[in-house]
Design brief:
With 235 residues, this protein is an alpha/beta fold. It has helices spanning 2-7, 19-32, 48-62, 85-113, 135-155, 191-204, 213-225, 228-234; strands at 12-16, 38-42, 67-70, 115-121, 162-170, 208-211. Helices cover 51% and strands 14% of the residues. Helix 6 links the parallel strand 5 (162-170) and strand 6 (208-211). The structure holds NADP nicotinamide-adenine-dinucleotide phosphate. One of its GO terms (molecular function) is oxidoreductase activity.
Length: 235
């Protein structure tokens, strides 16, 4: 996403824990797009004080943020009742509590500027309670989708605020997170294809979008409304 947004001329603040990888990416982007400013900050989103500190530094570096993408996420977990509480809790903390810290920092900035675009990365798995190792993950992705919708509710009727909130519901997109998952590969798209669909929805500032739209728009409705037995066979 950083590569695609930089190609469109957007300056970027990149954050993650593995800062060496971000430095390499920033160098690659700087070489390809010398007019684009790229800053890098190490950030563990579970360190909430660091979230607010890094946001403040990125705002200072770039003279403000037009858009924040709340993306950091974990897919760890195990069936509820099988002793996987630690992994499930880690997923909930990263995907929900840390996402809320990022939304807090982003929205405070946007309210102050009276403008901005918050993008929250949910998942197709938010469409329904999911079994086994996906139960906690699916619950977190439903939670962040509701968090974003709540923020959107706060903006209803607020004149003078040019703030948009977009929730993306990606299907299977090749990434480090799902490189081991064989059964998903039938519907998996490569990273640039999946990200292109996400960037397109982001640029339109839609409220919500399934990405890629096909087949995940219709499939999302099947996941949401089909009988439990049917969904169980699909996932
Ligand atoms: N790929 C898919 O098919 C798919 C589908 C639906 C939704 N999603 C969602 O898309 C988002 C990105 O996932 P991905 O597929 O790109 O997975 P990924 O390749 O595993 O990337 C996850 C990213 O989050 C960062 N991250 C994880 N924990 C962090 C933490 N505590 N602090 C700061 N950064 C952290 C990682 O960087 P560091 O490890 O360096 O910190 C990495 O850049 C996630 O929210 C995921 O749930 C993905």
């Amino acid at each position: 996403m950083a590569r695609q947004l930089a190609a469109q001329g957007h300056s970027l603040a990149l954050t993650a824990r593995r800062v060496d990888r971000l430095e390499a990416l920033a160098a690659e982007i700087a070489a390809a797009h010398p007019d684009v400013q790229v800053v890098v900050h190490a950030l563990d989103v579970n360190d909430h004080e660091q979230v607010f500190d890094v946001f403040a530094r990125a705002i200072q570096d770039l003279g403000g943020l037009d858009r924040v993408v709340v993306n950091a996420g974990l897919g760890k977990g195990g069936r509820i009742g099988t002793g996987a509480f630690a992994a499930n809790r880690e997923t909930v903390e990263t995907n929900v509590v840390a996402a809320m810290a990022q939304c807090e920092a982003a929205m405070a900035h946007f309210y102050e500027r009276k403008a901005g675009h918050l993008v929250v990365i949910s998942s197709m798995s938010a469409m329904r309670g999911m079994p086994g190792s996906m139960t906690a993950y699916a619950a977190t992705k439903a939670a962040v989708a509701h968090l974003a919708e709540g923020i959107r509710m706060d903006l209803v009727g607020r004149r003078g605020l040019d703030i948009a909130v977009t929730t993306l519901f990606p299907g299977y997109i090749a990434s480090e997170m799902n490189e081991q998952v064989e059964q998903e590969q039938r519907l998996m798209v490569d990273t640039p294809t999946g990200v292109r669909s996400m960037v397109k929805a982001i640029q339109k500032e839609v409220d919500t979008a399934a990405t890629p739209g096909w087949p995940w728009g219709p499939l999302g409705q099947v996941l949401r409304y089909a009988p439990r037995g049917v969904v169980r066979k699909l996932v």
